């Protein structure tokens, strides 16, 4: 048996869609039996949600008040305590997984594979390096557990409809007290989640101000889309950091991506290369974004975007 | 207040270089390519300098691990304002776990109160060293930091996470990895480059540290990514709407 342990990401009330994407990746490992572990304060509902992901054999529910918030230094020793017998330990390449998985790998004394984008065998994977300018094939030592993060944009969400067994487990691990969660300031929005939305509208530096960004929100709402931004727009303070798309922000794969006033630096393009259709609206016809756009429109975004929004509302 | 800050500086292909895979797939072309300090590490050093200049630290040590060429990046770090530098010299490719073990050996000697590292290197894009080091050291990690505030023997760190901004409190010593918006690194001035030549740069052969080598992940092949095809240009909004309708997207 090839036992795969997935660390569930959640916000205390819902399982993050990245978890079901990791299941899709894990399912490509030959002979895989997939277990998901849910660390929470009270994880009963979360465990049930995880158990419904198709392809999952077992969900391990580890309730502990120390698990109320995802603190890597607290979670890692608990993962290590239950790691025995698993050949693979996976997490998503979200900030949650990137924070946690290397800590687990180091405690287990192994190296980690970051951002798996395809599975070639139980110990052979591909991953992007140099902001996606090169794809490297890697082989992990056959006699050691594989600890990895999964590039969620490379995988579809595993379907719901499974009926995995749920096992509540008390984990005996020495939990540190040197790291304390204080608060999470979240830009709460009724719009779709940027990382999982099928449609995304992004704005760049050319918007010029946070007030001007309003036209991006309006267009997004007309399309039922999530809103993203280039690094330049975030650095300029037009929008919050959690909206950044690119090498150091979010890597996304929507069906439709509309880049408005974004020139298309390589670091931004690496975040959208798996999008289905890319639309670019930019006044500079030589902008690199047009090299990758499926549909390009050269012109003044302040004229085009309101007109586009009106046309969508009419159709 | 901290006494000593250790800052990691990795020598990487410059941010502005468009890296290409060698035609035989044996690696990426790095011959004759401009090399620089990893941009996130530069942010880490800048933060250390600001902490010291605000009177909250007394000494900044810059460290790099690699070939003697990395002296260039350490000299740049010294010119930016680091007090001294350490180069752990090795010509072997070093994997992240081994790097973390090497840093731990240096930490045992230097006993810093704070270790500042970039959140990822822009060559391998791994984003692992800080977390691994914190695990081996048995100390807190605060990754993807956009703000650090000291309070006695504790630090409050704001982290850029997918859901927004998370604040955590860590006991010192701790490992903090830096995100883009922590600060904007200073430019190096010519007189500082001259001064930096006189600052101490200690070279330690890797073999002297007695670090256990870990089982590395082998890189067996390199390929260029699939390129997206250039699409069509439309004339106006009506053309855009029609093109999207043709694709079934509107």
| SS elements, strand count of chain A | 16
- Return the string of H and E elements of chain A: EHEHEHEHEEEEEEEEHEHEHEHEH
Q: What does the largest sheet of chain A look like?
A: 7 strands, parallel
- Helical content class of chain B: 25-40%
Mean pLDDT of chain B: 95
Helix content of chain A: 25-40%
Radius of gyration of chain B: 21 Å
What is the correct CATH architecture of the largest domain in chain A? Answer: 3-Layer(aba) Sandwich
Provide structural commentary.
- The complex is a heterodimer of chains A (about 325) and B (about 250).
- Chain A is α/β, with parallel strands linked by helices.
- Chain A has two domains: about 1-170, HUPs (Rossmann fold, 3-Layer(aba) Sandwich), CATH 3.40.50.620; about 200-315, Rossmann fold (3-Layer(aba) Sandwich).
- Chain A has helices at about 15-25, 45-50, 70-80, 95-110, 215-225, 230-235, 265-270, 290, 300-315, and strands at about 1-5, 30-40, 55-65, 90, 110-115, 120, 125-130, 135-140, 145-150, 165-170, 180-185, 200-205, 225-230, 255-260, 275-280, 295-300.
- In chain A, strand 15, helix 8 (about 290) and strand 16 form a beta-alpha-beta unit.
- Chain A is globular and about 60 Å long.
- The mean pLDDT of chain A is about 95.
- Chain B is an alpha/beta fold.
- Chain B has a single domain (about 5-245), classed as HUPs (Rossmann fold, 3-Layer(aba) Sandwich).
- In chain B, about 25% of the residues lie in helices and about 30% in strands.
- Chain B has helices spanning about 40-55, 70-80, 95-110, 130-135, 190-195, 235-245; strands at about 5-10, 10-15, 35, 60-65, 85-90, 115-120, 140-150, 155-160, 165-170, 175-180, 200-205, 220-225, 230-235.
- Chain B has a nine-stranded mixed sheet with strand order 9-8-7-10-6-1-4-5-11, with helices on both faces.
- In chain B, strand 8 (about 155-160) and strand 9 (about 165-170) form a beta hairpin.
- The longest helix of chain B has 15 residues, at about 40-55.
- The termini of chain B are far apart.
- The model of chain B has no long low-confidence stretch (mean pLDDT about 95).
- The interface between A and B is large, with 86 and 84 residues.
- Strand 8 (about 135-140) of chain A pairs antiparallel with strand 12 (about 220-225) of chain B.
């Amino acid at each position: 048996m090839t036992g795969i342990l997935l660390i569930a990401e959640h916000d205390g009330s819902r399982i993050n869609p990245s978890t079901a994407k990791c299941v899709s990746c894990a399912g490509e490992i030959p002979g895989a039996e997939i277990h998901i572990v849910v660390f929470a304060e009270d994880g009963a509902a979360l465990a049930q949600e995880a158990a419904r992901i198709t392809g999952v054999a077992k969900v391990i529910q580890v309730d502990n008040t120390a698990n109320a918030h995802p603190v890597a230094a607290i979670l890692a020793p608990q993962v290590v305590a239950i790691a025995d017998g698993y050949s693979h330990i996976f997490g998503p390449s979200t900030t949650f997984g990137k924070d946690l998985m290397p800590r687990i790998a180091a405690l287990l004394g192994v190296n980690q594979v970051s951002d798996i984008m395809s599975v070639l065998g139980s110990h052979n994977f591909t991953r992007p390096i140099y902001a996606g300018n090169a794809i490297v094939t890697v082989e992990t030592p056959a006699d050691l557990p594989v600890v990895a993060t999964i590039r969620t944009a490379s995988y579809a969400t595993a379907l719901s409809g499974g009926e995995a067994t749920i096992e509540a487990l008390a984990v005996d691990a020495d939990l540190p007290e040197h790291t304390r969660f204080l608060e999470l300031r979240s830009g709460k929005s009724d719009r779709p989640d940027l990382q999982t939305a099928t449609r995304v509208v992004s704005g760049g530096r050319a918007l010029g101000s946070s007030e001007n960004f309003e036209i991006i929100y309006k267009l997004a709402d007309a399309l039922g889309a999530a809103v993203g931004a280039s690094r330049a727009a975030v650095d300029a303070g037009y929008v919050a950091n959690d909206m950044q798309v690119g090498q150091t922000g979010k890597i996304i794969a929507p069906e439709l991506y509309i880049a408005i006033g974004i020139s298309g630096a390589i670091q931004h393009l690496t975040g959208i290369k798996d999008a289905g259709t890319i639309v670019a609206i930019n006044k500079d016809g030589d902008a690199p974004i047009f090299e990758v756009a499926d549909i390009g429109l050269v012109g003044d975004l302040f004229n085009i975007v309101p007109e586009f929004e009106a046309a969508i509302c009419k159709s | 207040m901290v006494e000593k800050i250790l800052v990691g500086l990795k020598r990487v292909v410059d941010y502005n270089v468009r890296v290409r895979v060698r035609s035989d797939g044996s690696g990426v072309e790095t011959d004759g390519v401009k090399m620089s300090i990893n941009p996130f590490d530069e942010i880490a050093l800048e933060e250390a300098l600001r902490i010291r200049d605000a009177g909250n630290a007394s000494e900044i040590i810059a460290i790099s691990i690699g070939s003697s060429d990395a002296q260039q990046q350490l000299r740049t770090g010294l010119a930016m304002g680091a007090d001294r530098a350490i180069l752990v010299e090795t010509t072997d490719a070093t994997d992240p776990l081994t790097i973390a073990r090497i840093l731990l050996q240096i930490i045992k000697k230097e006993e810093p109160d704070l270790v500042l590292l970039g959140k990822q290197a822009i060559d391998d894009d791994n984003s692992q060293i800080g977390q691994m080091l914190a695990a081996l050291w048995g100390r807190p990690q605060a990754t993807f930091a956009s703000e650090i505030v000291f309070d006695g023997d504790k630090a409050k760190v704001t982290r850029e996470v997918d859901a927004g901004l998370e604040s955590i409190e860590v006991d010192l010593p701790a490992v903090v990895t830096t995100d883009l918006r922590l600060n904007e690194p200073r430019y190096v001035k010519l007189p500082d480059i001259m001064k930096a030549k006189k600052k101490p740069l200690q070279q330690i052969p890797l073999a002297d540290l007695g670090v256990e080598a870990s089982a590395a992940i082998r890189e067996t092949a390199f390929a260029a990514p699939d390129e997206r095809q250039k699409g069509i240009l439309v004339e106006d909004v009506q053309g855009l709407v029609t093109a999207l309708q043709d694709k079934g997207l509107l």
